[in-house]
Specification:
3 domains; 40% helix; 17% strand; alpha/beta; Rossmann fold; 6-stranded mixed sheet; 483 residues; elongated; homodimer
């Protein structure tokens, strides 16, 4: 990115000039110590700036010299990843302060989130000292920063490609699951922060940052609770005015709140309060990371959704009935195909026996790709619709081998999708335990690589479309979100 | 099955002494003609009674002589599978009548479900003639009968094992999808009927049959509409008094109803009417075939569900928070773990940092199987709960290779499940496109082979438990459903 673009205040935490990982031991003793693993992940991810390993014992970590303390490192250190027991953290903060460290990520747990009062006191002490030295704290009890642009990462196999989605997550696990979910669906990130207990850098800071960040087009968030209600509402409102914000607010029930307070010390707040807050802010609320990236998929892979009138096209009577139900139940509407278009379809197939030419359309892909193409061409331009939803359930076919089912259905959906002048989504439904031959995943990936918005069910596709439509209605923004 | 067990009236349709498939051509011309495929499927499925192929041309079909007409067959014919264009069906009915055929399955479409009035008239004519000869009609516009006991089948790869679940489905595709969904989840069928337009044998006949059938413990149904409201209500009530009935009523919305009338000529009826009908009958309502067999899974693989107080056990803070939300949202409750049990867990792990010991329990499977086992043993006998829900999200772990993640999580869930003296369900959550290495499916199958009730999400598991609990409450039956 050109230096001339104005970067928001917190930007430096994503671009440290040098990084130290504290909590390693010589690889000769164990390569599985957490500190060693953080070092290995950074190197695997192509981290290019000076990187140091700190810990006890003499030796090397992934070919790097192991330093005994932060103070021993010859060069300057901007960013410190901390993977040591919590009682040693206060001393480390002192050392980091003297060394001029700017940001510390605290992986360790056992602070504000446990019931022992000492944990909360320890967290306060760390924070006090960090403030004295001007050090910003990420965590404790979290995974830290993933930023492809600066080669920072905290998990194996994360995409090395920079994208346009910002993600903040109070949970490390949900953060990792979200990254993997997104990456598999062709979605890349500008920056991701797993921020845990939010003792210093919190959800408000990060939303404000992503709002200003020119590298971020869409903000996604997993939040368990907040201590900053009014500021969060303000931050969300300002963010939504600039870009879509998708929030997976968890800890929404009695059981969830019990869990959250032990997980990240979050005060979950009542479900009603959060619902009101997210509605007032105009954020898109979802209920899983899968749903979160369903919404991103529509935002990135479809033109603006300007209406809900949907043409539903697929194969199989029962499958079409269910698709129509799932589509309507999610809030989309299905106007009846006008007689002139039904006649056009009758011309292609000579009969409507075994087909449905209304809305939905039931078109048999085994009757030839030419006819399938001709049929969709005849109706795709219809002015009465805003959206086209293509669906298939390959395993409903009785006479066809499994691999051929998937091949034909995948090719047909792709051909149809190419013909659509409207926003189009593709849904392929499979069984619960779809067999370990990987065929459904291969089909999914094949459709996705063509650039289409692909979903594992009509319900998920429709719900994502409905949410995105409402977002556009609220924000009255007409710009297409770039991938 | 011993001959002494009384079999209900319609039983003979599932045990024809001989079968003919009409609509074949010599294999030398094409093996893909539908009639040929029906013959091949029956032979593959081990059909043992006399089997005849009927069609035009001279030659063989799968080694069987091809007869020109039903009348040419030397022996008697009980059951006829019909795969010829609809205009030839009236003549065939005459031939069958003269031959003494008892049941005809009409695969073909183009009758009551198309808009051409001639289709409906054709259907009426066929029915009139069939009645004259005492022939029962299945369909038209359907797949017919699958009955492992008599080796009847209509799709490739169906299980050859007889089970205790009866399934009637108005849609052929949903029927096949349901059979595959069930088979992959270790569920086998007593009898399955895809009944299409229901011109003669209809949903009421089949529910009444399954109610009386000693081979059927659980009735499942995919229904788009009915022309027999009062009789259906009565049949469902009588069925529910004897065994659980699970209904996937489709064509529930405007779009769905538009589709259904073209699919099976079903008058869908209003969603409210159906909701009331199914409630009054005490049937379990579901919204997909996947959900249908979720419910069967709980019925077959868990002891009676006598309450909803649930202990939720898994790994990962965010994952536990979401699991708790999903569990509570589905209607289960999560009482707080009493202090004495929390102390017992503290003894096992020394600290609650990085764990949650409340309800949910967050227990790290990487800290050793012995500890994991000890921890669950300490709480599994707790009198304050009725259910145990075990969940995992393997891909949330940052430092562990994917295959090792799945291995550890799967082994841990199995070990924990073995320790449970209560009804226990297992939920493993994966990404939307979970990679084409088949690891999630392998884990799913491994847990399932141990006999446990396995689900792809906490929400699905919880919803199935809630539905089954309500069924037991209504029916006050205490008997365990055998697999």
């Amino acid at each position: 990115m050109a230096e001339s673009i104005k970067r928001p205040g917190l930007d430096y935490i994503f671009h440290p000039g040098s990084t130290a990982v504290v909590g390693a031991i010589p690889d000769s003793l164990s390569r599985f110590k957490l500190g060693n693993q953080f070092v290995r992940i950074l190197l695997d991810h192509g981290y290019k700036d000076p990187l140091y390993a700190v810990g006890s014992g003499e030796g090397e970590v992934c070919g790097l010299k192991l330093y005994q303390s932060i103070g021993d490192i010859p060069g300057k250190v901007d960013y410190v990843i901390t993977a040591i027991p919590n009682q040693f953290v206060p001393k480390l903060v002192e050392d980091c302060g003297k060394k001029g460290v700017k940001v510390m990520h605290l992986f360790v747990s056992g602070f504000g989130e446990i019931e022992d009062k000492a944990g909360l006191e320890l967290q306060s002490e760390i924070l006090r000292n960090a403030r004295k030295y001007g050090i910003r704290i990420i965590g404790p009890n979290c995974m830290g920063i993933y930023c492809p642009e600066s080669n920072l990462a905290f998990g194996m196999g994360f995409s090395k490609v920079s994208g346009r989605v910002g993600y903040l997550a109070q949970s490390g696990g949900q953060c990792i699951l979200g990254i993997k979910e997104a990456n598999r669906r062709g979605i890349d990130f500008s920056k991701v922060v797993s921020y845990g207990n939010a003792s210093d850098i919190n959800e408000c800071d990060l939303i404000e940052y992503f709002t200003e960040d020119p590298g971020t087009d869409i903000i996604t968030a997993y939040i368990e609770g907040t201590n900053h209600g009014p500021r969060l509402l303000r931050a969300l409102k300002e963010a939504v005015a600039r870009k879509p914000v998708i929030v997976f607010k968890c800890a929404d029930t009695g059981g969830g709140s019990q869990a959250a307070v032990s997980h990240t010390s979050a005060i979950a707040g009542s479900s009603l309060t959060w619902d009101a807050l997210l509605r007032q802010a105009g954020a898109i609320r979802v209920y899983s990371v899968q749903e979160m990236f369903d919404v991103v998929t529509v935002l990135q892979r479809c033109p603006e959704v300007t209406g809900l009138r949907t043409l539903v096209v697929g194969h199989g009577g029962g499958s079409c009935v269910q698709a129509s139900d799932d589509c309507c139940r999610a809030g989309l509407s299905m106007p009846m195909l006008p007689p002139v278009l039904r006649q056009a379809l009758m011309k292609v197939y000579r009969t409507d026996a075994g087909n449905i030419f209304k809305n939905p359309l039931d078109i048999n892909p085994y009757w030839g790709m030419d006819k399938a193409r001709e049929a969709l061409s005849a109706v795709a331009g219809w002015q009465g619709i805003d959206l086209i939803l293509l669906h298939s359930t390959p395993e409903q076919d009785p006479f066809v081998p499994r691999d051929f089912q998937y091949k034909i259905h995948t090719e047909t959906l792709i051909e149809w999708a190419r013909l659509s002048p409207k926003p189009v989504v593709l849904a392929m439904t499979t069984n619960t335990a779809p067999g370990d031959d990987g065929l459904p995943e291969k089909s999914f990936n094949q459709m996705q690589k063509e650039g289409f918005a692909v979903f594992p069910s009509v319900g998920r596709a429709s719900t994502a479309l409905f949410r995105v439509y409402n977002y556009y209605q609220r924000s009255r923004r007409g710009t297409r979100i770039s991938a």
